[in-house]
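User:
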Amino acid sequence: MDDTLLQISIQPGHRIAIAILSLLLVGLVLELVRRDYLKEKYALLWVATSLTGLFIGIFPGILTWLTHTLKFQLLTTLYALSFLYTLGIILAFSVIISRLVERNRVLAQEVALLGNRVRHLEEGDDHV
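Assistant: Predicted structure:
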């Protein structure tokens, strides 16, 4: 193995910790879904995250290869991946929030129209 690859490998203790934390995250996500605190469609993102962590914990050579290929240091690679992941989470939540805002606007308009109709019916005005 290349000396450069040996210098940027992940220590066995760290690999085990990554794998254990990933499994704990999977367990936590499944428990949150079971208690109905987290919907399934949002849980998929967290399960994918934990499985990625588990995969890196079991096969750290992928991260080592990526670091070597990009000619980065290990911490730089981890930072870049974390940054991209955070951007992905923010984008996903922005899409969700945008949909909810639009849905809320439509519901508010429907409630206003129904309130107006009820008011006219109560006044005896049948020309609504």
